[in-house]
Specification:
Elements lengths: L32 E4 L22 E4 L3 E8 L13 E7 L1 H11 L4 E8 L2 H12 L7 E4 L5 E8 L4 E6 L2 H4 L7 H8 L3 E6 L3 H13 L4 E7 L6 H4 L4 E3 L2 H8 L6 H13 L4 E5 L5 E5 L5 E3 L13 H14 L4 H15 L12 H10 L1
Parallel strand pairs: 2-5, 2-9, 3-7, 5-6, 9-10, 10-11, 11-12
Antiparallel strand pairs: 1-6, 3-4, 7-8, 12-13, 13-14
Helix pairs in contact: 1-2, 1-9, 4-5, 7-8, 9-10, 10-11
Catalytic activity: D-ribose + ATP = D-ribose 5-phosphate + ADP + H(+)
Keywords: ATP-binding, Carbohydrate metabolism, Cytoplasm, Kinase, Magnesium, Metal-binding, Nucleotide-binding, Nucleus, Potassium, Transferase
Subunit structure: Homodimer.
Amino acid sequence: MASISPATPWHSRSRTNGLFNHTTSLQSAAGAGGRIKSKARFPCFVITNSVNPSTPPPLVVVGSANADIYVEIDRLPKEGETISAKTGQTLAGGKGANQAVCGGMLSYPTYFMGRVGKDAHGKLIMDALEGGGVLTDHLDEVSQVPTGHAVVMLQSDGQNSIIIVGGANMCGWPENLDDSDLEIVKNAGIVLLQREIPDSINIQVAKAARSAGVPVILDAGGMDAPVPAQLLKHVDILSPNESELARLTGMQTESFEQISLAVAKCHQLGVKEVLVKLGGRGSILFTQGKEPIKQSIIEAEKVLDTTGAGDTFTAAYAVAFVEGKPKAECLRFAAAAASLCVQVKGAIPSMPRRKAVLDLLQSI
């Protein structure tokens, strides 16, 4: 199993394959679909056989991109009932895009690999990713299916209920990823996956990462179905919230003892680290054979919208991890980022900048 100790600096890991070279033009291929070339905000990656120690290997997020249709309501409608929304708007989102923009806003070189339709929602997402500093060289447009979207029902207390329509996220992928996609995975510093794209794609990515010694974090959010064993055995860190952990293991997760037992089942399935997000109760990192590390929440001044908070936490943890911070510090950094996220409406619009996270940590 690949080492996932954050004490290992990124520049000490061997990178024998070619690195990345992106352009600064925005292009769309004709026909069935095309690759989006990124307007890069970070230094160019140069094809080379040796690592440039001044350029850190990127965070690579492979996952979903949605147009989130927000409706603000006082309460959820009952069966057969129609209610009126206070307001409605459409914003870029999706677990993969959220996490990628979080990485970009935290000033870490971040690539997003995903699929969008050739439609207005696809352009909305592309603009949001590039506006967040994300490199979109591996984001493809597909013409056969529309961009994925979600209906987000936001209640007055900041809690939300979400319905997802997969679209290009589920139907826009080839059977086998091409070599350029797998190459960037193999040269990543860390890879982030979620479950809003086909398991077959996640398995290909996780295998490629494992073959190159690149750590993989799987955010368990997304489809309500068992995680394939073929995927789990190539994951270094599994990151569910408590309800996802309960569904995945078939066990209760209401107390620390119950959570510990459920995590032990994950260890039995081959996952050595499990990062459990507990909402208002904070988070716990379980490493097999070691004492769990607990992190309480960092109180927000006012909770406006919890959408994207879990994505922010996971992505911020990944950034701190690949930068070589101790695990307890990674948790604290992630908690601060999530605290800032819930104070702004929308998913991608709420992703915090690095300076804001550091300022918050210094103030407590």
